[in-house]
């Protein structure tokens, strides 16, 4: 590299040749050669205060009250016990998919009467058998009424038959949620081996594909029909953000002080950075300009959850 008799000791960039294919007006393909460098110009992405998504380990979209209603009504109509419980677990606790699907039968085997209070706390992370993102330790808060449903499910013939089909048979360390063939829906870190060992070759690691397929093939089509929107989209991870906003609304209704609400939400969602939690509170404040929080939604959600469980969960 030399310009105007200037030859730098270290090249400020590296040039290379690239071929670019294009089509002319008649549809014929041609190729031109261009020079390119390894330089890149990065710009800070401006934050949109009216964005309907929250950055929390991905761009998540909290479901508004109307969409939560359609979600629960659709789950009730589809009558898939395991998928209903899996979705409600995330909606009511904010747990990520790997945490929900690596729950063990033993984690909900204790009688609800052995616990005190309105919520039942469950330790997650290393040493518990429940996977968490980044192997962090945290505590889930399960509403008592939902824990009671999980307790009924784990002791049901339906769940027992699935455990009997699983490798190792019916025992308390089996995943709480199994396929109808007894296969885990998510393989935790401890059970993952190499992709291939000797003559046995594993096709893929289970990371919740069955849940995503259920959403794509069954849940989304029904929700689109109810919403009258053929392009409607939502992902399982959006349930985490929905839980966070539901908690913000509940604390707002109780007139919880900002710093207290911030700390409570950070603990519930296991945020390492306080700035992530602040996004949830800022999101709600911004969205108030577009749609006010519906009065009594928390109570209405509980009613819908109970109705969904009564209709869709067969034990």
Q: What can you tell me about this protein's structure?
A:
The structure is a single chain. The protein contains 10 helices and 8 strands. By secondary structure, the chain is of the alpha+beta class. It has a single domain (65-190, 206-309), classed as Orthogonal Bundle (hpI Integrase, Chain A), CATH 1.10.443.10. The strands form 4 sheets. A two-stranded antiparallel ribbon has the order 1-2. A two-stranded antiparallel sheet has the order 3-4. Strands 5-6 form a two-stranded antiparallel ribbon. The mean pLDDT is 84.
Q: Could you spell the SSE succession in H and E letters? A: EEEEHHHEEHHEEHHHHH
Number of domains: 1
H/I helix tally: 10
Level-1 CATH class name = Mainly Alpha
Q: How far apart are the termini?
A: 74 Å
Average of pLDDT: 84
- Side-by-side strand order of the widest sheet: 1-2
Structural class: alpha+beta
Keywords: DNA recombination
Organism: Paraburkholderia tagetis
Protein name: Integrase
InterPro entries: DNA_brk_join_enz (IPR011010), Integrase-like_cat_sf (IPR013762)
């Amino acid at each position: 590299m030399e310009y105007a008799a200037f030859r730098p000791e270290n090249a400020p960039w590296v040039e290379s040749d690239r071929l670019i294919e294009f089509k002319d007006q008649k549809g014929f393909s041609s190729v031109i050669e261009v020079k390119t460098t390894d330089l890149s110009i990065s710009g800070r992405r401006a934050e949109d205060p009216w964005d309907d998504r929250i950055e929390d380990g991905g761009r998540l979209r909290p479901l508004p009250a109307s969409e939560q209603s359609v979600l629960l009504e659709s789950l009730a109509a589809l009558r898939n016990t395991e998928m209903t419980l899996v979705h409600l677990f995330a909606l009511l606790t904010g747990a990520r998919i790997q945490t929900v699907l690596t729950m063990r039968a033993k984690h909900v085997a204790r009688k609800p009467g052995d616990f005190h209070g309105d919520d039942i706390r469950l330790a997650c992370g290393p040493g518990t058998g429940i996977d968490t993102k980044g192997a962090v330790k945290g505590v889930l808060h399960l509403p008592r009424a939902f824990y009671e449903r999980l307790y009924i499910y784990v002791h049901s013939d339906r769940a027992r038959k699935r455990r009997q089909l699983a490798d190792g048979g019916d025992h308390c360390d089996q995943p709480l949620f199994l396929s109808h063939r007894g296969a885990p829906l998510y393989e935790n870190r401890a059970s993952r081996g190499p992709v291939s060992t000797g003559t046995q070759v594993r096709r893929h690691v289970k990371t919740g594909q069955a849940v995503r397929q259920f959403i794509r093939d069954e849940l989304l089509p029904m929700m689109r029909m109810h919403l009258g929107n053929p392009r409607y989209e939502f992902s399982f991870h959006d349930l985490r953000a929905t839980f966070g906003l539901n908690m913000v609304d509940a604390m707002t209704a109780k007139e919880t002080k900002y710093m207290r609400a911030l700390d409570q939400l950070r603990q519930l969602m296991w945020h390492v950075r306080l700035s992530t939690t602040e996004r949830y509170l800022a999101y709600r404040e911004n969205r108030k300009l577009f749609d006010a929080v519906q009065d009594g939604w928390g109570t209405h959600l509980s009613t819908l959850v109970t109705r969904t469980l009564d209709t869709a969960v067969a034990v």
